[in-house]
Design brief:
Blueprint: H1 5-15, H2 18-48, H3 52-88, H4 92-117, H5 121-128, H6 134-146, H7 148-163, H8 167-189, H9 195-221, H10 237-272, H11 274-290, H12 292-311, H13 314-341, H14 343-347, H15 360-370, H16 373-376, H17 378-389, H18 393-418, H19 422-458
Helix pairs in contact: 2-3, 2-8, 2-9, 2-11, 2-12, 3-4, 3-6, 3-7, 3-10, 3-11, 3-12, 4-7, 5-6, 6-9, 7-8, 7-9, 8-9, 10-11, 10-18, 11-15, 12-13, 12-17, 13-17, 13-19, 17-18, 17-19, 18-19
Length: 459
C-alpha cells in the first residue's frame, strides 16, 4: 500500500469531528448517488419513448433487479461497518482482512443469485400481472440478471473506498458509469434497434467499465489505505459473522423494499391497470432522485457511526445522529417545495413522445403525494444507519420490515382498495407508514445511544 497524504487525511477525517465528517463524506456520496440515479433514470427516459408497455416492463423488472443491487450494497454495508470500526480502533490488519473476506463473499453470491432469479423470471412477472409486458420484461431482465457479477462487484468496491473515507474516487467511478450509460442508452435502443435489450446492455457495459477502473486503483496503483491481497487474507469465522450481521439485514431490507414494490405494483394493477405501474415507475424514479441527498447523508452516517463506536466515543455518536437528522430535514423541505410546485414540468421528462404524452398529468399527480416521503424519512433513515454502523443490522431490519411489509402494505391496501381511494390512497398509505416507521426508529435509536453512554459511565 502506497501511503500518501490523501489516505492519511481520509482516515483522520472519519476519526475526527463528526459534523465535519458527515458534511465532507456526504457531499461526494450525494453526487455519486445523484449521478447513479441519473443513469438509472436514463433507462426509463429513453425506454419511455418506446411506449407505456416497454416502460411498464422495466417497471416490473426494476424491483427484482434491486434484489441484485441490494446484494452488493448489503455486503458493502457490512464491510463498511466493520472496516470503519477497525479503523476507529486503529486495527489495520482487521480492516484489510475484512476487505478480502468481503470480496470473496461478493463473488460467491454473484454466482448464486442469478441462478435463483433467472429460472423464475417469467412466472414472477405473471404473478405481478405484467400481462402484455411480460416478454419485454424477460428480454430486459435476462441481460441484467445474467451479469450480476458486475453489479455486485461495483457496489462492494465502492463501499471499500467509502469505508476508508475515499468518497471522491467512489464518486468518480460512478461518474464514468453514468456518463457511459447515458451515451450508450440511446445508441443501443434506437439506431442499433435493440429496444429494451439495448438499455440493459448499455447498463451492463457501463458498470463493467467502472469495476475495471476501481480494480486498477486497488490492485494496479495500490494507493488505497486498504490492502486487498491474498497475503492479507486469513479466514476468520468472526469476520464473516461481523459482516453478515449488517450485510444480511441490509440485503433483506433492500429485498423487503423490492417485495413491497412488487405488491404495490399488483395493487396498482388491480386499481388502474398496467398504465398505473408505468406511472408509478416514472414517479418513483423521480422520488428516488430527490432522496439521494438523504441517502448520501445516511451513508456518511454509517461510516462515522462505525468509527465513533470503534473509538467508544458515544458522545460523538449521539452528536452525529442528531446532526445528520437536522441536515436531512433542511434538505427535505427544499426538495418537497421543488417537487410539489414543479411536478407538472418534471413529469414532462417522461412524456416527450406521442406514445407516452398521456402519462404526464398522472405522473404529476403522483409526485404531489410521493414528495412528502422526503419529510417522513430523515429521522428513521439516520437512525437505521446508526444501527448498521455499530453492527446492529438486525435492529435496522426489524424496523424496516415492520414499516414496509406490515404498516406500509396494510395502509396502502386499506386506503387504496378497501376504502376505494385507488391510486391516491395507495400512495398516501405509503407516506403515512414511512412517517410512523421514522418515529419508531428515532425513539429506538435514542434509547440505544443513551444505554451505551450509561454503561460507559458506569464502567
Amino acid at each position: 500500500m502506497a501511503n500518501n497524504n490523501r489516505t492519511d487525511e481520509n482516515i483522520e477525517l472519519i476519526r475526527g469531528d463528526p459534523k465535519r465528517a458527515i458534511r465532507k463524506l456526504s457531499v461526494p456520496t450525494m453526487m455519486s448517488m445523484l449521478i447513479l440515479m441519473i443513469y438509472n433514470l436514463a433507462d426509463s427516459l429513453w425506454v419511455a419513448g418506446l411506449g407505456a408497455e416497454a416502460l411498464a416492463a422495466v417497471g416490473f423488472i426494476t424491483p427484482v433487479f434491486f434484489i441484485i443491487i441490494n446484494v452488493g450494497n448489503g455486503i458493502g454495508a457490512g464491510a463498511n461497518s466493520l472496516i470503519a470500526r477497525a479503523i476507529g480502533a486503529e486495527n489495520k490488519e482487521l480492516a484489510d482482512n475484512a476487505a478480502v473476506h468481503t470480496l470473496l463473499l461478493s463473488i460467491i453470491l454473484s454466482i448464486i443469485v442469478p441462478m435463483i432469479l433467472i429460472p423464475f423470471m417469467e412466472p414472477l412477472l405473471n404473478i405481478m400481472g405484467a400481462g402484455s409486458s411480460t416478454q419485454l420484461g424477460i428480454e430486459y431482465g435476462t441481460i441484467m440478471f445474467g451479469f450480476t457479477f458486475f453489479f455486485v462487484l461495483s457496489g462492494v468496491l465502492q463501499s471499500l473506498l467509502r469505508a476508508e473515507g475515499d468518497v471522491k474516487r467512489a464518486m468518480n467511478a460512478t461518474i464514468v458509469t453514468s456518463v457511459l450509460n447515458i451515451i450508450l442508452d440511446p445508441i443501443f435502443i434506437y439506431p442499433m434497434g435493440w429496444g429494451v435489450s439495448g438499455a440493459a446492455w448499455a447498463t451492463v457495459l457501463s458498470v463493467a467499465v467502472s469495476c475495471v477502473i476501481m480494480g486498477w486503483w486497488i490492485w494496479g496503483k495500490k494507493d488505497t489505505y486498504l490492502t486487498v491481497t491474498r497475503k492479507a487474507f486469513e479466514y476468520k469465522n468472526y469476520i464473516l459473522k461481523e459482516i453478515a450481521v449488517v450485510a444480511i439485514p441490509n440485503m433483506t431490507e433492500g429485498i423487503t423494499f423490492s417485495v413491497m414494490i412488487i405488491f404495490i405494483n399488483m395493487m396498482l394493477t388491480i386499481a388502474a391497470g398496467t398504465t398505473a405501474v408505468a406511472v408509478y415507475t416514472s414517479a418513483a424514479r423521480i422520488n428516488q432522485l430527490a432522496m439521494i441527498p438523504l441517502m448520501g447523508i445516511g451513508t456518511a452516517m454509517l461510516t462515522v457511526a462505525g468509527a465513533a463506536f470503534g473509538q467508544r466515543d458515544y458522545d460523538k455518536l449521539e452528536e452525529a445522529h442528531s446532526y445528520s437528522i437536522k441536515f436531512g430535514y433542511m434538505i427535505s423541505i427544499v426538495l418537497i417545495f421543488i417537487m410539489f410546485f414543479g411536478s407538472d414540468y418534471i413529469a414532462l421528462l417522461f412524456a416527450y413522445s406521442d406514445q407516452s404524452a398521456s402519462l404526464a398529468p398522472m405522473i404529476s399527480s403522483v409526485l404531489k403525494i410521493l414528495c412528502f416521503f422526503l419529510l417522513a424519512i430523515p429521522a428513521g433513515m439516520m437512525s437505521a444507519m446508526v444501527f448498521q454502523g455499530v453492527g446492529k443490522g438486525f435492529t435496522s431490519l426489524a424496523i424496516t420490515v415492520f414499516r414496509a411489509l406490515i404498516i406500509e402494505l396494510l395502509l396502502a391496501y386499506f386506503l387504496g382498495l378497501v376504502l376505494g381511494f385507488g391510486e391516491a390512497g395507495i400512495y398516501s398509505g405509503m407516506v403515512l407508514a414511512a412517517a410512523i416507521g421514522s418515529v419508531i426508529a428515532y425513539i429506538w435509536c435514542k434509547l440505544y445511544i443513551r444505554g451505551l453512554k450509561k454503561n460507559s459511565n458506569d464502567s
